Structure formats: C-alpha cells, structure tokens
Amino acid sequence: MLMRTDPFRELDRFAQQVLGAATPGTWSKPAAMPMDAYRAGDEFVVSFDLPGVSPDAIELDVERNVLTVKAERRPLPSGDEIQMQVSERPLGVFSRQLFLGDTLDSEHITADYEAGVLTLRIPIAQKAKPRRIEITGTQSDRREIQA
Fold this sequence. Notes:
Belongs to the small heat shock protein (HSP20) family. It holds the Pfam family HSP20. This is HSP20 family protein. It comes from Actinophytocola oryzae. The protein has one helix at residues 9-19, and strands at 2-4, 35-40, 43-49, 58-63, 66-73, 92-100, 110-114, 117-123. A four-stranded antiparallel sheet has the order 1-6-5-4, with no helix packed on it. It has a four-stranded antiparallel sheet with strand order 2-3-8-7, with no helix packed on it. It is built from one helix and eight strands. It is elongated. By secondary structure, the chain is mainly beta. Mean pLDDT is 79; it is low at 22-28. It has a domain at 1-6 and 41-75 and 89-129: Immunoglobulin-like (Sandwich), CATH 2.60.40.790.
C-alpha cells in the first residue's frame, strides 16, 4: 500500500492559489510533482508528471521504506541573443516522498521515463500475496457429513 506523506498539500495548494506563487529570491519548499498511483495485478504503478525535465536531472532513492523522487527543471541557457518574453513554467527542484508499505518489494522497483512522465513499477512482495494452505490430517480425523 502507498501512503501520501504530506497532509498539508491541499492547504499549500490553496494558499498558492489565493496568495500567488512565491516570488523569485524568496524561500519556498521544493515544489511537489503531480502523480497517479494504482495497482495493476501484482504491482503498484506510480506515474509522475515531469515535463521539461531531462532524465539525468532525476534522482530516485529508497532508504528503509521511503521512496524519494527529486527532479530539477533547469533554466534555458542565457545569453545576449535570448530575450525571455513569457516565463510561466516553474523552475527549480521538485520533490516527492512516498512511504512504501511492508507489502511492497522495494528491492525490485523499475523506472521508465518517456514523454515527460516518470513511471515506477513496484512489485507486491511475495510474502504479501495470497496463498493456499494445504490441510493435512489422518484418516481417522475425517468426518463425513451426510445430507
């Protein structure tokens, strides 16, 4: 099971809508990246939107049962020939942490980055999968039920 780690995310989002985004040069925490998470068979799939981020600017770390995704959208090259007309896309570091439950196999996570979407596949741990238990006993222990 995946759990969200930032209970104040909605409050932060509301505050940004009402008060506006932080101005350049002011302190702000790393921006969160939107994600979708769902179970598909024997794995959890988590997709993060990271448009405009190069694959070498993405870091994935797992420590204990915490998965950390960090990405950096870097500014365009500067120079005398470039005059920015509109700059609405946020730049800087984006970060997200997920707590991975004990039922997930953090040793075998796979990652794929295509078309600005980072997709992680986290298998369900073998110990968490349902299994059948065979019941054994002696012949004398069996009882027949008559209808």
